[in-house]
Structures are given as C-alpha cells and as structure tokens.
Amino acid sequence: YYQGVLKDFQEAAMLIEATTPTSAVGEAEKANKLAIIELLNVYAFQNLVDIFGDVPYTEALDIEMISPKYDDAATIYTDLIARIDAALGDLDDSEGSFGPADLIYGGDVELWKKFGNSLKLKIAITMADANSTLAKSTAEAAVNGGLFTSNDDNALFPFLSATHTNPLYEDLVQSGRNDFVPANTIVDIMNDLSDPRRPLFFTTIGGIYSGGQYGYESPYSLYSHIADPIHQPNFPGIIMTYDEVRFYLAEAVERGFAVGGTPSAHYEAGIKASILFWGGLEADADTYIAQPSVAYATATGDWRQKIGTQAWIAFYTRGLEGYTTWRRMDYPIFNIGSLIT
Q1: Range 168-185 burial, b when 16+ CB lie within 10 A, else e
Q2: Is 211 helix (H, G, I), strand (E, B) or coil?
Q3: 55 has which bridge partners?
Q4: How far apart are alpha carbons 222 and 205 in whole angstroms?
C-alpha cells in the first residue's frame, strides 16, 4: 500500500500539480484529477487502518522520515472523512478528468462523486460501534451526496488476459498449484440456504457442493473447486460495489441513522445486486429472497446475523471486506479448525 499505491499516487499528484493549464476547462480537469487521486488515497488508507489499526499516516509518505510515527486509528478515520469532503467539493461533474486513461470510470466525474459518497458511507458504518455520533452524521451526509444506485456504478479494475492479470488468476492458475478448495464454512452456509450463487462460486464433486473441512487436510480430488469465472485472467478487481452499499444502508437504518428506506428493502436489494453481479438470474434472486431462511422478516437471528451473513456471502473473493464485516457483526458463525497437539 505505501510503496506501490500511496507513493505512486503522491507522485502522480505532484506531476499534475506541476502542469499549467491554459484555460478554465483545463483548470477544472486538473482539479478533478487531483480530487480523484485523493479519493483513492483515502480508500487505500482506510484499508490499511482496517487491516492493522494504528498505522503511519501523517508522516508516512515523507521520504526523509525513516521511522514515521504511528497515528491513532480513530483519528485517521476522522481525518479521512474530512479529506473525502474536500475532494468531493473539488469535483466538477460538468468537466472531464482523465478520460480513457481512467480504467475504472473512463473519466466520468459524476461516477467518482458517487464513489466518494459511497466510500464515506462505508467509513461511517465501519466506525459505527466506536463513534456512533460521527458515524450517523457521516452516513446521512453521504446519502445526501448521492450513492451508487445500481451495478452500473460498481468500481471495478479491469485486468488483462495476458499481462497484468488478476492476482487470483496468478494464485489459482499461473502458480501451477492444484490444491485450492473452498472451505466448508461458506459452502455449508450456502447449501443450507440453497443459494443460487453456488455454481458461480464453486464446482461440484459428484453433483454436490462440498467444501473442505476448515483447518483440516482436504484432498483436492475429494472436494469442490473454485468456479471457472474466477480462474479467468481478466476477472475484474473489485474495489467497491452497489450490493456493498445497500448492505451498509440496511445496517444504517437498523442503527437509527436517517438514511431512508427500510432494512428489509436495502437487504433484499443488496442480495439481488450480488446475484446479478455474479451472473445469476433475477428470477433466481427473487426466489432466493422469498425463502423463509433468507427473507428479512423470517431469517434466523437479529439484524446483525441477517445482514452480516448475506453481506459476508456477497463479499466472496473480497477477503478484507468479509473479515471487516464479520468483526463488526459477529456473524456468520465460523467453523472451528483443528487443534494441533
């Protein structure tokens, strides 16, 4: 993150700052470029905090500072919110930005505004247990600013079929290893729910979706494997998605935040968006959501269990988001691995 992402963004911003536009349009495009870089800086730092907690922040990118101090995670989060607000204030969606050099949104500044507000909502929900007052005001401001409204707004990074392939492809295929099997933790949960995403996530073994026993030896030939779409070199890198936003909104309503809608409507929209994103059919999504084991009114547990379980399933291939959600919601209940004696 520091060397390969944040330092590169710092250098890019320096180069853009050094340019001298010759028109008002050029000035607006310059400001948009810098604001987009800033939003991605925030995204990167938020991931660092979610992984490690306290991290180098204020002194992190100073090349002369060989021992940067560690900043408090809560303080960093508060500053990240301010940085998003400043970047959103600098974005002018009547003008362009990077054009086709922007591999995520093709230079569409309106979509970057949606990304910034959706990122602000994500930060608000992630910090909700630690600072509910700031989380509430931040979430409500994010909604007023405009969030993702469909899968068309998803922030996806396109990988190529030859060079610059998805890291999942490098692990699953280019490594030459044939020992990756899905764990029974997720497979069992999805089997119990008759989840229509199973063929999009896994292969079958003898016509059955069978996950390896978590924490135990699981021979490759005896269990399901990772589904073919995820093996493709150009499987997109997932930065942020519409289903993620709808699960955050469901949680926000349950926490008493004034973000509009009902928990059930946001929850169902999140599930449907995930199924459609993975290539499932709308009819299958409707049937799945109508099941008593999935429907918001009848699914097992409180709102943390319902939303937490479905968000965790949707975050398949997004380990950090799945882990962060589980840490906040305490659901789903994971299988216990073997004890080494």
Answers
A1: bbeebbeeeeeebbbbbb
A2: coil
A3: 71
A4: 7
113: amino acid identity, one letter: K
Q: Please give the structure tokens belonging to residue 34.
A: 């810098």
Q: Could you tell me the CA-to-CA distances from 278 to 57, 275, 321 in Å, in that order?
A: 36, 5, 17
Q: Residue 152: which residues within 8 A CB-CB, separation 6 or more?
A: none
- Tokens representing 198? 């199973």
Which pTM value belongs to this model? 0.95
On whether the CB atoms of residues 335 and 214 are closer than 8 A, the answer is yes
Give CA–CA dist 263/114, Å, rounded: 21
Cβ neighbours, 10 Å, residue 53:
12
Q: Which of 75, 50, 54, 51 is nearest to 131 (CA)?
A: 75
Contact between 257 and 144 under an 8 Å Cβ cutoff? The reply is: no
pLDDT digits (tens, 9 = 90+) for 104-123: 999 999 999 999 999 999 99
Amino acid (1-letter code) at residue 29: E
Over the stretch 35-86, which tens digit does the pLDDT of each residue have? 999 999 999 999 999 999 999 999 999 989 999 999 999 999 999 999 999 9
* Amino acid symbol at 3: Q
Per-residue pLDDT tens digits for 249-286:
999 999 999 999 999 999 999 999 999 999 999 999 99
At 24, the amino acid letter reads A
- Confidence class for position 341, pLDDT limits 50, 70, 90: low
3-class DSSP assignment, residue 163: coil
- Going by C-alpha positions, the residue among 180, 168, 176 that lies closest to residue 218 is 180
- As a whole number, mean pLDDT of residues 83-100 equals 97
Q: How far apart are CA 220 and CA 51, in angstroms?
A: 30
Residue 190 contacts residue 262 (beta carbons within 8 Å): no
* Confidence check: pLDDT of 340 > 80: no
Residues 6+ apart with CB under 8 A from 207: none
* Distance from C-alpha of 174 to C-alpha of 166, rounded to nearest angstrom: 10
